[in-house]
Structures are given as structure tokens and as C-alpha cells.
Design brief:
Length: about 180
């Protein structure tokens, strides 16, 4: 019986050593699983944070693009408005003064003078000048009465040269300020 005791003792020691190794391996596996779970949670949190930041970045980029498009639209509107103002100012008829000299009893009259073929008189004139003559220019003319003012304008811009002098109407503003 004594002969089998070391054998049994070796088996028990081997089983104890195997159990101890299994316990150590089990602890390492549990530790690795816990470490994996912690890292996985950390990775999920970081992924969630990155997705939130990506959503915010995308929203900001879209907002920036919308603002850039709105800025471009406003810029075009401003340029269109400025062009319209320039066009409107160019179309407004200016008040030209035929002559500044006047007699004591003279009144102010407005006479529209047109020239349909002003391009023949001044071929190098800009288009806005040609348009203003074809549409008619308003001239301030001093005279004792409307017929005298019209005659004065007709002497300066004769019909034989292609000018047409319209009827002289009384100036409705304050003539003393002129």
C-alpha cells in the first residue's frame, strides 16, 4: 500500500496544480472579459461622441452653405438694386438751363426739346445721350410769356437742324430758387 501512496499523492498534487492553473486561467479570462467590456463601453462612448460631433459639424456646414447662398443672393439683389437705381437715374429727365440771363419781368417755363436723329449730329455720342435726346430733354427757359420762351428755345435749337421744341409750360417750382 505504501507503494501506491506516492502515486496517489502525485495524482492529487497534479489535480491540485491543474485546479490552481484552471483557477488562474479563469481569473485571467474574467479579467480579460471585464477589460474587453470596459474598452467596448469606452469605444461606444467615443463613437457616440464622434457621431454627435459629426452631426453638429454637418449641421454647421449646412448652415454655413445656406448662409453663403443667402449672402450670394443678397449680394446679387444689391447689385440688381444698384443697377436699377443707376438705370432709373439715367432715365430721369434732367432739367437743363437754356440760359441763365433773364429780364426783370421774366417767368420760368419748361420746354421739352427732342431730336430723333441725334446720332447723325453727334455720331460719337454715348447711347444714354442719344436716348435722352430722342425721349426729350427738359429745358428751363426764361421769358415774358410762354410763346416768347418757346421762340427763344426754337432759336437756340432750330427745327431745320432736326430739333423739335414742345410747348412751354409754366415752371411749377419756386423760380427764385433757380
Amino acid at each position: 500500500m505504501m507503494d501506491g501512496l506516492p502515486f496517489w499523492f502525485g495524482i492529487v498534487a497534479s489535480i491540485a496544480a491543474a485546479a490552481h492553473i484552471a483557477d488562474l486561467v479563469s481569473k485571467r479570462i474574467r479579467h480579460a472579459k471585464a477589460l474587453y467590456a470596459a474598452r467596448h463601453r469606452q469605444l461606444q462612448e467615443i463613437t457616440h461622441q464622434m457621431r454627435d460631433k459629426a452631426k453638429i459639424t454637418l449641421a454647421l456646414r449646412r448652415e454655413e452653405q445656406a448662409m453663403a447662398a443667402e449672402l450670394e443672393s443678397l449680394s446679387r439683389s444689391i447689385h440688381t438694386g444698384e443697377d436699377a437705381v443707376v438705370q432709373q437715374k439715367s432715365q430721369e429727365s434732367l432739367l437743363y438751363v437754356l440760359e441763365e440771363n433773364r429780364n426783370a419781368g421774366d417767368q420760368a417755363f419748361l420746354a421739352r426739346i427732342t431730336h430723333r436723329a441725334f446720332a447723325r449730329v453727334a455720331p460719337a455720342a454715348p447711347q444714354r445721350v442719344l436716348d435722352s435726346w430722342s425721349q426729350g430733354r427738359q429745358f428751363l427757359v426764361w421769358g415774358a410769356m410762354a410763346q416768347a420762351a418757346q421762340a427763344k428755345a426754337a432759336m437756340r435749337y432750330p427745327h431745320g437742324r432736326g430739333f423739335t421744341v414742345g410747348a412751354a409750360d409754366a415752371y411749377k417750382g419756386n423760380a427764385d430758387e433757380l
